[in-house]
Specification:
The structure holds two protein chains of two kinds.
Chain A (H helix, E strand, L loop, with lengths): L1 H14 L2 H24 L2 H13 L5 H7 L7 E3 L4 E3 L31 H4 L2 H4 L8 H5 L31 H12 L2 H4 L22 H4 L2 H9 L1 H4 L12 H14 L22 H11 L7 E3 L5 E3 L9 H4 L2 H9 L1 H4 L12 H12 L17 H13 L42 H10 L17 H12 L3 H4 L18 H9 L7 E2 L2 E2 L9 H4 L2 H9 L19 H14 L17 H14 L24 H4 L2 H9 L1 H4 L12 H12 L11
Antiparallel strand pairs in A: 1-2, 3-4, 5-6
Helix pairs in contact in A: 8-21, 11-13, 13-19, 14-18, 16-18, 20-21, 23-26, 25-26, 27-31, 29-31
Chain B lengths: L1 H24 L11 E6 L4 E3 L8 E6 L10 E5 L4 E3 L2 E3 L5 E7 L5 E10 L5 E11 L1 H13 L1 H4 L25 H4 L4 H10 L19 H14 L12
Parallel strand pairs in B: 2-9
Antiparallel strand pairs in B: 1-3, 3-7, 4-6, 4-8, 5-7, 8-9
Helix pairs in contact in B: 2-6, 5-6
Classes of the chains: A mainly alpha, B alpha+beta.
């Protein structure tokens, strides 16, 4: 009762009469209108700005810092990038280099970066909500906004939104993009890059159209069960097929196999079996002298892979290949697989027999010891065909009777902006996009046993790199205005004519780049015609094992005929010319012995060239650049002169520095180098 | 009064339940044995990008007073800005504990402290330094791998054979050689890279990179040298 009386008193006090009502409403209105200014007054950003202005008073350059500091909301507005960033409201000292010793956020200056803050803002690189003015909303996902700050470990992904080429400052992104291409991710997933092109896989999974010629059903079974058991370096993932499934797949693959062009070729019987117990020994040394290890690796006794990774590992090749197939393959790889990167070596029958016996000796008796498959039947083949079709095997391999699937796996072009509400997280995992992507790569089938994506058994570093590359695939990247995308063209140069066909046969571009197209294992040949002397080139083609004697990866000897060598050399000398290499470039009469003497002085004293190059094998030891003993035979004087003046102009990215030589110094050094000749052994003229 | 009693009883029942549950989820590790000394086996002075996980774990070993490895000794790890998994563990059968380290988001040095309680109270600790590379240091690392380390690093890798042994004395310094390089100013390092050894009266074996590298690349190399210096580089004190 007393409570109601009291309440009645309060009611009468505030709204009892009209003036009292007016006064109450006015006071209420005043309170309500004070809410916004009060919130603003107590806002986080104001708190940080006050703290900052106290803090800078303790600094030696307080006056300067204070003059540069402006209170209030700061904003970077870049309409063409859709950037409205107020981050600098709290991160007030981003551009104050004198605070570089400060580690306290948000007063730390930004570390050195490639772009200016005012041109790019913050969220282009760091993500987050640029327009927010509270810590929570700016950095973390909220119901309204779900772009949280990108963790520092994936920051390089942001560079990939515009930059297509490998940058010096983004090793992780570069690695991730190489892995995307190398592990064949792009066979199944379409990944559109900022310039509109798709990520192109660089692995070349073999065609299986003639697989029964090459190997057995037992080997296919063992490989399908666990590719890494056959070759540690295999990039094909383990699909964890059951024995039954692997057996069905093997049955189908053998059943669908047709004859290749090679199978029609007769094998000479005479050298099929070689006498003598040192055949394998001789084959081993042939494997070495042909430099097979430039591309193929074999595990040594210590378990380390020795050799290149361009072509399949051969540690257990003897378990895999049919001896007749091997001999036909060594004679003409392109007859079995027209797209192979392996050159046609022009081996003679004895060499083929020796190499075969060496490769067939490379085996592990345990690999197929316990594989006993039931006889193949129609049901098994049908089940195998269904599995091959269901698991998208034809996304990578050519297989008869199964068409390549269209959009087999999800398009990943915008995976870096995938809304979190569309993501099915695993229980217990941090609910962020990077963690989801990394988790999916780490163990795809943890997200559902029915998922087909296999486990690629990647290392943590590789997963981090791949996640970085995928996080670059944002909405912003896909819709980037073309003028902001930085990419260099990828020309598809192929030499033409008869020489072109020969170069195709020898697969020169598997290792050498020409006009921007080709491998990077061997020197770029774009300007080879300007660089080398004809006599040297003819000799080199005949016996190419001399230029870099200490390297494991070297140019193999192709058993070319004299006519082939002449044709190829003359084509290269005329087609692969740099501009400005006419007689005007250097007056050859000035390359006299006085100049050579001065050049020798420059070589050994002023520029210490012997630290990296060998001019004389008796006293020089430098081994960074190629040996220059005999360079007078190899290179033209004009090339040496122009190279010395500016190496990067002739070979972009060469580690040889530009010494800013004067014309006279370059001429004297050229005169000296031109005297470095080896005794001719004779050869083609 | 009765209601109050019921409430108190319920409260008393619930509270221990909550406590039991929590201790079940996260049983505290306790040292079964106490070591005399903790020693570092591997994993220090690694450099990696900011925020990323180091390639190799940090491995420490707990030894007893007689110097033999102890199993079951508690080791705890902490370090400002670092994510350490696990934060504490018991040493394994060979007396070792290995911890995976994720660096913080700020470029620079980080210190990890491994701590093992000693028998008579107190503890034995060891400090491990790790390095986070920011954008500029990463550029410097890439540039120096291409142009510098062939001569400045005595170690050969499968991709690169060291040229250091092929040079005539005076031999180049490793970039981690803080004892020598920390005493050189930024300006001198930039000068020797841009204009070659003779610019500072040193060997002409160091070529001039002024026309090969950009100014930004040269500064990045200096930043990388500063980042990996051992002992760590201390920038000169700013003017007061």
């Amino acid at each position: 009762m007393s409570l109601r009386n009291q309440f009645g008193g309060v009611w009468r006090f505030f709204v009892g009469t009209a003036p009292r009502r007016f006064a109450s409403v006015s006071v209420l209105l005043a309170i309500v209108s004070a809410i916004a200014p009060t919130k603003d007054f107590f806002s986080q950003w104001r708190h940080y700005q006050e703290e900052y202005s106290h803090f800078i008073r303790t600094r030696p350059d307080a006056g300067r810092l204070q003059r540069r500091f402006e209170s209030g909301i700061h904003q970077i507005w870049i309409p063409e990038q859709r950037v409205v960033d107020r981050c600098t409201t709290c991160h007030v000292a981003l551009q104050e280099a004198s605070l570089s010793d400060v580690r306290k956020e948000p007063f730390r200056p930004h570390p050195a970066m490639p772009h200016s803050l005012t041109e790019f803002g913050c969220v282009v690189c760091h993500h987050g909500q640029g327009a927010a003015t509270t810590v929570q909303e700016a950095h973390y996902s909220t119901k309204a906004w779900e772009q949280p700050i990108l963790p520092a470990r994936y920051l390089e992904s942001s560079c990939g939104q515009c930059h297509m080429d490998a940058l010096e400052g983004t090793p992780q992104l570069n690695l991730g993009r190489r892995l995307l291409a190398r592990y064949g991710c792009a066979h199944c997933h379409a990944i559109t890059q900022p310039d509109g092109t798709l990520v192109a896989p660089v692995d070349e999974p073999p065609s299986l159209e003639h697989v029964a010629e090459k190997t057995t059903r037992e080997w296919i079974f063992a490989w399908t069960k666990n590719p890494q058991a056959y070759a540690a370096s295999a990039t094909m993932p383990n699909y964890r097929f059951s024995d039954q499934e692997a057996s069905d797949i093997a049955s189908f693959l053998v059943a669908q196999s047709t004859s290749s062009d090679n199978s029609a070729k007769e094998l000479p019987k005479s050298v099929a079996s070689l006498p003598g117990s040192d055949t394998v020994q001789e084959g081993t040394s042939l494997y070495g002298t042909l430099f097979c290890a430039s591309c193929h690796a074999i595990q040594n006794a210590a378990g380390n892979l020795v050799g290149g990774e361009m072509a399949p590992e051969l540690t257990r090749a003897g378990n895999k290949v049919n001896p007749d197939w091997l001999r036909r393959w060594l004679r003409a790889p392109q007859g079995y697989d027209p797209k192979t990167r392996m050159p046609r070596y022009r081996l003679d029958e004895k060499q083929i027999a020796l190499l075969s016996s060496f490769l067939l000796s490379k085996k592990d008796d345990d690999l197929l010891a316990n594989v006993h498959l039931p006889a193949s039947d129609a049901q098994s083949i049908a089940r195998g065909k269904k599995l091959v079709s269901d698991y998208g095997c034809v996304a990578c391999h050519r297989i008869n009777g199964v068409n390549p699937p269209e959009s087999f796996a999800p398009d990943l072009s915008r995976i870096g902006s995938k809304p979190l509400f569309q993501v099915g997280f695993l229980r217990g995992m941090p609910e962020t996009l990077p963690d989801y992507i990394a988790g999916k790569i780490h163990d795809p089938r943890a997200f559902g046993p029915a998922l087909k994506m296999p486990n690629f058994s990647l290392t943590d570093g590789q997963i981090e790199a791949l996640t970085t590359a995928l996080l670059a695939q944002t909405d912003r990247a896909v819709t980037m205005p073309p003028e902001l995308v930085r990419s260099s063209p990828h020309p598809k140069y192929h030499p033409g004519g008869g020489a072109g066909r020969l170069m195709e046969d020898l697969r020169c571009q598997s290792c050498h780049a020409i006009n921007g197209n080709g491998g990077d294992m061997a020197p770029d040949l774009t300007f080879e015609g300007s660089a080398v002397n004809r006599a040297w080139l003819l000799d080199f083609m005949k016996n190419p094992n001399t230029l870099r004697p200490a390297l494991i990866r070297r140019m193999p000897k192709f058993n070319l005929s004299d006519a082939e060598i002449k044709g190829l050399s003359d084509y290269m000398l005329s087609a692969y010319q740099a501009s400005g290499f006419d007689s005007q470039a250097l007056d050859l009469s000035t390359l006299n012995s006085d100049a050579a003497t001065r050049g020798k002085q420059l070589f050994y004293s002023k520029y210490a060239c012997q630290s990296c190059h060998i001019a004389d094998y008796k006293k020089d030891k430098g081994y960074v650049g190629p040996a220059l003993a005999g360079v007078g035979d190899r290179l033209t004087s004009v090339w040496m002169y122009r190279w010395l003046k500016n190496p990067n102009a002739l070979l972009p990215g060469t580690p040889m520095p530009n010494f800013s030589l004067s014309d006279n110094e370059a001429r004297d050094l050229t005169a000296f180098l031109a005297t470095l000749k080896e005794h001719k052994k004779g050869g083609l003229k | 009064m009765r209601r109050l009693r019921v409430a108190c009883l319920t409260f008393l029942l619930i509270v221990p339940l909550g406590c039991t549950k929590r201790s079940n989820v996260n049983p505290p590790l306790s040292s079964k044995v106490y070591g005399a000394q903790i020693v570092l086996l591997s994993g220090d002075k690694q450099a990696a990008g900011v925020g990323s996980k180091l390639a190799d774990p940090v491995v420490v070993q707990v030894n007893g007073a007689d110097g033999s490895a102890l199993t079951g000794a508690l080791v705890s790890f902490h370090g400002e800005g670092l994510v350490l998994t696990p934060a504490e563990a018991l040493s394994d059968a060979s007396g070792q504990v290995s911890v995976s380290v994720q660096l913080g988001g700020i470029p620079g040095g980080y210190e990890l402290v491994a701590d093992a309680p000693k028998a008579g109270g107190g503890s034995t600790t060891i400090n491990v330094r790790e390095i986070a590379l920011g954008y500029q240091e990463k550029v410097g690392k890439e540039v120096s791998y291409k142009y510098c380390t062939t001569c400045h690093d005595p170690e050969s890798t499968p991709e690169r054979v060291s040229n250091l042994d092929n040079l005539a004395p005076p031999l180049p310094h490793q970039f981690t050689d803080g004892n020598t390089l920390n005493s050189m100013s930024d300006a001198d390092l930039i000068k020797v890279i841009a204009d070659g050894g003779p610019a500072l009266g040193k060997s002409p074996q160091t070529p001039a990179y002024r026309n090969t590298l950009t100014q930004a690349q040269i500064k990045a190399v200096v930043a990388y040298i500063r980042a990996v210096a051992d002992p760590p580089y201390q920038p000169p004190a700013t003017k007061h």
